[in-house]
Amino acid sequence: CLYAGGNQMDLLPNSAPLARKLRNTLIQYHSIGDSEWRVAKQTKDATVWRKPSEEFSGYLYKAQGVVEDVTNRIVDHIRPGPYRLDWDSLMTTMDIMETFEENCCVMRYTTAGQLWNIIAPREFVDFSYTTSYEDGLLTCGISLDYGEVRPNFVRGFNHPCGWFCVPLKDYPSHSLLTGYIQTELRGMLPQSAVDTAMSSTLANFYSDLKKALKT
């Protein structure tokens, strides 16, 4: 499937091997021992940890919290689709550019400026894949260099990231939601500002999601 972006012709990757590789990478992150993580932020809704990323010079973040709802409904709110824009305060637009079989798609989305606009709005083009994991679901993604960058946006890049959502054994109407995020915002930014923004964004993600699920 070819896409003409300006003068460039970007080739979309073959979705099946990319989905498989992405899933394996996320499962590998999910097995990293507790001792390798350092707490970055704690709120009543979630704990956020971080460790140096092996993909780029920033951090791999891990966020975890219990969400009072069933797995499918939570993941429907997180993965690309109509719910996400409604509640995620960071996301300002989202378009699904291509859809593949097996719960795969390519989406383009934009994010709001952060930290009093020290971090300007960003645009991302991500390959997204949702699959079963244990008794629950994994929805994961990775950025693609695809399509032309819109004016007024810096194109960011998400290294492999995703959300595991599994029902709690004793309380199946509650789910344990664990996210792994490593976003390269690009552009000229102080790393400390990025790190502050990432921890807060992930903690807010949980509180916003919980509010959305209650409505």
Structure in words:
The chain is an alpha+beta fold and 215 residues long. The protein has four helices and 14 strands. The strands form three sheets. Strands 3, 4, 5, 6, 7, 8, 9, 10, 12 and 13 form a ten-stranded mixed β-sheet that branches. A two-stranded antiparallel sheet has the order 1-2. The N terminus is likely disordered. This is START domain-containing protein. It comes from Mycteria americana. One of its GO terms (molecular function) is cholesterol binding.
Helix content: 25-40%
List the helices and strands in order: EEHEEEHHEEEEEEEEEH
Characterize the main sheet: 10 strands, mixed
By secondary-structure content and strand pairing, the structural class works out as alpha+beta
How many β-strand runs? 14
Overall geometry: globular
Radius of gyration over alpha carbons?
17 Å
Helix count, DSSP H or I runs of 4 or more residues = 4
Low-confidence stretches: 1-9
The rounded distance between the terminal residues' Cα atoms is 39 Å
**Share in β-strands:** 35-45%
Q: For the residues shown, what is the average pLDDT?
A: 90
